[in-house]
Design brief:
mainly beta, Immunoglobulin-like, 5-stranded mixed beta sheet, 4-stranded antiparallel beta sheet, 0% helix, rod-shaped, disordered N terminus, Ig_sub2
């Protein structure tokens, strides 16, 4: 055990209890390990030893880890009009990061053709149905938490569908 003031990085707490006589000023606080604290009260001559004791156990896991991309979206995706595309991005971090998707710098929202899926182990997916030429561009998976931000980007290319021209000749 050690006695003394609370040092940096420690948490201290003093609990008050009703007693017939107040405890002497400066009654000691005893520290047990780094996460346990016990308050004891001194007895005075002619007074029975106080029976009230308080024990507090503190457990903190306050580590913050910035987001990391653990599986990148492909750098380039090439598809044809009308196809479906799924972009998948794996992220980690503490606390678990929130994930958003953007297209050419604009945040995406769910719609008839766009949907978002959060899977196990930090995997996030963007589903695009019925891709058109206007969907081409830069798609980003952005992971954020209190410790930072990470992102992964993919360029989607959708060439226009060539429709053969019908040529008619009249003689």
């Amino acid at each position: 055990c050690r006695e003394g003031a609370v040092s940096a990085g420690e948490v201290g707490m003093l609990a008050a209890a009703a007693a017939a006589r107040p405890a002497a000023r400066g009654a000691p606080l005893h520290w047990l390990q780094d996460t346990e604290m016990k308050e004891t009260m001194q007895s005075f001559p002619g007074q029975a030893a106080p029976a009230i004791k308080h024990k507090f156990k503190f457990s903190f896991d306050v580590r913050n880890e910035p987001p990391q991309i653990v599986s990148e979206v492909p750098a380039h995706i090439h598809c044809c009009e009308g196809e479906a595309v799924v972009l998948e991005c794996g992220v980690s971090g503490q606390p678990p990061p929130s994930v958003t998707w953007s297209w050419n710098g604009q945040n995406l929202s769910a719609s008839e053709r766009l949907s978002f899926e959060k899977c196990e182990a930090g995997t996030h997916r963007l589903h695009i149905r019925g891709v058109s030429v206007s969907d081409a561009g830069l798609y980003c998976c952005v992971a954020k938490n209190v410790a930072g931000t990470a992102q992964s980007a993919s360029e989607l290319t959708v060439p226009p569908t060539l429709v053969p021209a019908v040529v008619s000749f009249t003689w």
